[in-house]
Every structure is written in C-alpha cells, then in structure tokens.
Write a structure and sequence with these properties.
The complex is a heterodimer.
Chain A (H helix, E strand, L loop, with lengths): L1 H5 L1 H23 L8 H12 L2 H34 L1 H16 L2 H9 L7 H23 L3 H9 L4 H39 L5 H10 L3 H27 L6
Helix pairs in contact in A: 3-11, 4-5, 4-7, 4-9, 5-7, 6-7, 6-9, 7-9, 9-10, 9-11, 10-11
Chain B lengths: L1 E9 L2 E10 L5 E5 L6 H8 L7 E5 L7 E3 L11 H6 L10 H7 L15 H15 L4 E4 L7 H15 L4 E5 L2 H6 L4 E4 L1
Parallel strand pairs in B: 3-7, 3-8, 5-6, 6-7
Antiparallel strand pairs in B: 1-2, 1-4
Chain lengths: ~250, ~190
C-alpha cells in the first residue's frame, strides 16, 4: 500500500479525484447549475463547445496572441536585462519603467492600450507588457549572479568574449531564463485572457468567457475556463520540456 | 615573472611583506605557510588580479600563466573533456584526451564535474592548466584530496607536460615540494 502511494502519478490522480469530489459535493449542496455547475455539466458543455468551429478559432487566436506576446516579452525583457546588467547607468535610467509596469493594475493598461491598438492586438500587447519585466529581472539577476570565480578563471585562461558568453554567461543565465519562462507563461495567459474579456476581439477565449457570463451560461463559463487552464498547462509543459533539456547539469 | 619587494595589505593588516621571488628560466619555487598567511593573495598578485601595495610584479609582455586555483573552478555544465578542451590551443603540450589520460581520468572524460569525486575534479583542473600550456605554472594546493600514490604519478605528469615551464607551488606539505623538485622554498 505504501509503494502504491509513493507513485507520483497515483498521488496526482488521487489529488485530482479528491478535488473533483469536493467540487461535485459543492455543486450538490448549491443545487443549481446556474450558480455552480457540476463537473459532469461542465464536461458536457466543454464537449459541446468542441463540436463548434468558433471554439477552435477562439482557442487558436487566443493561443496565438498569448504566445506572441509572451515571446516578444521574453525577447525584449532579455535584451533589457542584458543592457541593465552591463550598464549601471542604463539600470538606473530604466528601472522606474520596470517598477511602473510591475506595479500598475493590468486593467489600467488594457483600457489605455485600447485607445491606441485594435481589440485584436491589445491582448498580445498586454501579455508582452506583463512578461517583459519578469524576463528583464530574471535575466539581469542571472547575469549579475554569474560565478565571479568562473569569470576570473575565464580571464586567466584567455577566453574570448564569445567564449565567455557561450561557456560562462549563457549557461549561468539559462536557469533564470527558464524560471522567467514558466512564470511568464502563466502571467501571459492570465493577462491576455483578461485583456480579451475587456477588449472584445472578434474571436477569443476571454471574449467567450465574458459572453457566457452575460447570458448566464455558467456551465459554458466553466468550460471555457477549463479550456484556458488546459491550454496554459500544455503550453507550459512544452516550453519547460524544450528548455529543460538544455540544463541537464542542474 | 619576478616579484620585487612586493607587499600587500588588506586595510591595516599586511599579509605579504617585501617578498621577492624569481620565477624565470624554469625555476620551481614552493611557497609554504599556514592558513591566512597570504598564499592565495600571492597567487592573485602574480595573476594581476590585484595590485601590490608596494613593490613590483614584473612580467614578460607575452607571458600567460597557467593556473590551478585553490578551488577547482570547473565549468559545471561541461564534461571533464570539454572543460579541458576549452583552453586547448597552439601552445598545448598534448591533446585534451591525452592530458586527461595522464591524470588517469580517461574513464571519466564524459562526466560532468558534479559526477566526479573531489580528487578527480582536482586532476581535471590540473589537466586544464597543463592543456593551456602557460608559463609559469601556478599551482595552489594541486594535490588536495589525492592519495599519496596518486600524488607521485600526478607530479610526474605535471613535470612532463609543463615542458620546462617555471612552477610556483603553494602547499602546506613539504613532501609535495619534493615531488615537483622545487629547488627553493619560501615560508610566509
């Protein structure tokens, strides 16, 4: 029996079953799918949605917006991280920008960005804006925490700049970069879908969540939310799998 | 490389006082002393990583020392072979694989540093310093973690592959100075 519970997959399945039962019990207690749909009602709504072309189109467009915003945010954040790590002046100059972006409410940005960009582009820009400071902080932190003894060794043995970048800095920063990727993807989904709820693009999971709420279709609201979670989880696993191979030493 | 009346202080505390040392023409010098007597500071002075408070460190313009640091300082993401190969160049006395073989690490060449024992990591650091082919060869406690038999064989390999380079050995153990044939011992 002990060996049975030691299996990680078994433990995860038991945890999932436990929370499904809690959900089911709560739904029975409430007694209304309008207020709290049960797991079977949510599954039924999700299966019904899967049969519509609008569902797949919304999923694809949201995925595209979130992933594009995430990639651009990681790219810009990484470049800024390198710049501020190597230049203290640039760090001082740009750090207020990072602090503002990190502290300001995401809804303020969404409403502001809607004045300048289309409703289809706003979610992508918001995902970019949320991911960028995260990548910036992590990459700069990774560079600054590079082992000074290894850098000293590289200097003594006459490493070229490229060699130092490839053999010392890049492997040192990679774990920080991966950490930014995993956290950034979650934030990109949350912020991107929230932006879709407010911006109302022609197709999008956030827009569908809003419409489900508007028409009191609570099982559909839950089904859309489940679809967001599944897609977010799958994308995160893919990215971690791809990047994880690069840090086998750690 | 030559040190002329070099002194170095950390604030008020003078750790090296008017030390003169000649490491030219293949000389082998051993520096001994207890903990905190400035042995590693001396190494850093010789590498130009810190400047003396007074005196001079004279280097040839083309001088490039090879080093075994007190810590191994291996790149943790690279295999033993890759760590040695990173410094391979025209002045290397042998291929990285041959140097690892001389350090009895052929079977571990594809292992990451964390998969090696402390003694194996030390030998890998020695192989890297030899592969760089620099002169002088600065060794900060190179035999740390090696058993007595292995010390003799590693010392022979150091003598063979350093090809007449000057050697500075920093150690606590006078026997290690004998193994490397150091003709001069300086006590800090």
């Amino acid at each position: 029996m002990k060996a049975f519970f030691k299996n990680r997959i078994v433990r995860k399945l038991i945890a999932a079953a436990f929370w499904l039962l809690v959900w089911q019990a709560a739904a029975w207690a409430v007694g209304s799918d309008l207020l709290l749909p049960s797991p079977p009602a949510t599954a039924k709504a999700l299966i019904a949605l899967c049969g519509t072309s609008g569902f797949w189109k919304s999923c694809a467009l949201t995925l595209l917006r979130v992933f594009a915003g995430f990639l651009l945010g990681m790219l810009a954040g990484s470049l800024l991280g390198v710049l501020t790590a190597v230049s203290p002046f640039a760090g001082e100059l740009l750090s207020p920008l990072r602090s503002i972006v990190k502290a300001a409410p995401v809804t303020s940005f969404i409403i502001l960005v809607l004045l300048y960009l289309s409703s289809a582009l706003t979610p992508m820009f918001i995902a970019f804006l949320i991911v960028m400071p995260l990548a910036w902080t992590n990459v700069a932190g990774g560079i600054l925490s590079t082992d000074k003894q290894l850098l000293e060794m590289a200097n003594v043995f006459g490493f070229t700049r490229l060699q130092k970048l490839k053999s010392v800095y890049a492997p040192s920063v990679l774990p920080h970069f991966i950490s930014a990727c995993t956290a950034g993807l979650g934030f990109a989904w949350k912020s991107g879908v929230t932006a879709e709820v407010i911006a109302h693009p022609a197709f999008g999971m956030g827009k569908s969540i809003y419409e489900s709420k508007l028409y009191l279709e609570t099982p559909e609201l839950f089904a859309w939310t489940a679809a967001v979670i599944i897609l977010s989880f799958a994308l995160e696993k893919l990215v971690v799998l791809a990047l994880g191979r690069a840090v086998k030493w750690n | 490389m030559e040190l002329k009346a070099v002194s170095f202080s950390y604030g008020e505390e003078e750790v090296i006082k008017e030390l003169s040392l000649d490491l030219s023409n293949g000389r082998r010098v051993c520096v001994m002393g207890g903990s905190g007597r400035g042995k590693t500071t001396l190494m850093r002075l010789m590498l130009g990583l810190i400047e003396p408070s007074s005196g001079k460190v004279l280097r040839r313009p083309d001088e490039r020392p090879s080093v075994v640091f007190q810590e191994d300082r291996l790149l943790p993401w690279y295999s033993a072979l890759r760590n040695v190969s990173e410094v391979h160049g025209p002045r290397s006395p042998a291929s990285p694989a041959e140097l690892l073989e001389a350090m009895e690490l052929s079977d571990a060449r594809d292992k990451l540093p964390k998969e090696l024992s402390g003694g194996m990591q030390r030998r890998c650091a020695i192989a890297r310093a030899l592969c760089f082919g620099g002169d002088p060869l600065l060794l900060d406690e190179p035999f740390k973690g090696l058993d007595p038999d292995l010390r003799g064989r590693v010392a022979q390999a150091i003598i063979k592959y350093s090809r007449g380079a000057s050697i500075l050995l920093i150690t606590h153990d006078e026997k290690e100075a004998e193994l490397l044939g150091c003709g001069e011992i300086i006590r800090l």
